[in-house]
Amino acid sequence: MSGTVANDAIVAEITIKAPAERIFEALTNPAQRVKWWGLKGRFETTEVESDLRVGGRWAMHGNGMGGKPFSVVGTYRIVEPPRVLAFTWLPSWDEEASETLVRFDLSEQGGVTTVRLTHSGFASAGSRARHQGWPQILSWLHGYVES
Amino acid sequence: MVTLNHKRREAVFRAIADPTRRDILGLLRGRKCSVGEIAANFRSSRPAISKHIRLLRSVGLVVTKREGTARICRLNAEPLRDISNWLSDYESLWGESLRSLKRYVEEE
């Protein structure tokens, strides 16, 4: 499992010993998603709603840091079982946030599936980043902090 | 999740969403420059570049100081820390969620 920042996206990847169909189900079935999605003590999911079709709405509700309730809502953009799932992401805790895009790509080989997550669109609300992007921006910060 | 200072953070996001402004920050990374020196690197008019610099200054990414008749600009990367913290929050959210997905699917 690794998490990195590439261009203007957050990319995370993991290998799971299960068929892609099984993982796609865990990603899209609300009763299953509520069981694993989140971050203990900081982002605990209690309820997931899902209208699984392109253009269909989804929502998740839960408790964030200090038990503060949160919601994330969005719309499915790509539903191609069992390989691609993409949906928009709009969090309630950030009044001025614009919609970003979360995409899961599943590739199965011999019963083992690589799940690649890409969360993108952070710097593209106004104009899409054409070059440079996060690594460059963060290197400025590191340069600043280390100097 | 990070909730503090989201207005400031959004302003920084907007500031760095523009490629010209990122180029200006890149120029200032290694050295201080006058507004004229910065403008010389771009095809855009000097007033247009000045406007970009004002915006960068308003979010704290650029600090300016008068030296004689020139206005000298330098990079202040500190506001990027908010964005870095916010990104690492998401990185841990997705990282933890994927590990949790793995446990859920493999152990059931």
Notable characteristics:
A: alpha+beta; Alpha-D-Glucose-1,6-Bisphosphate, Chain A, domain 4; nine-stranded antiparallel sheet; 3 helices; B: 108 residues; alpha+beta; Arc Repressor Mutant, subunit A; 13% strand
Report on the structure:
The complex is a heterodimer of chains A (147) and B (108). By secondary structure, chain A is of the alpha+beta class. Chain A has helices at 20-28, 30-36, 134-146, and strands at residues 2-6, 9-16, 38-39, 43-50, 57-64, 69-80, 84-91, 100-109, 112-120. Chain A has one domain (2-146): START domain (Alpha-D-Glucose-1,6-Bisphosphate, Chain A, domain 4, 2-Layer Sandwich), CATH 3.30.530.20. Chain A has a nine-stranded antiparallel beta sheet with strand order 1-2-9-8-7-6-5-4-3. The longest helix of chain A is centred in the last third of the chain and has 13 residues, at 134-146. Chain B has one domain (6-107): Winged helix-like DNA-binding domain superfamily/Winged helix DNA-binding domain (Arc Repressor Mutant, subunit A), CATH 1.10.10.10. Helix content of chain B is 64%, strand content 13%. Chain B contains five helices and three strands, in the order H-H-E-H-H-E-E-H. The longest helix of chain B has 28 residues, at 80-107. Chain B is elongated. The mean pLDDT of chain B is 87. The interface between A and B is large, with 57 and 41 residues.
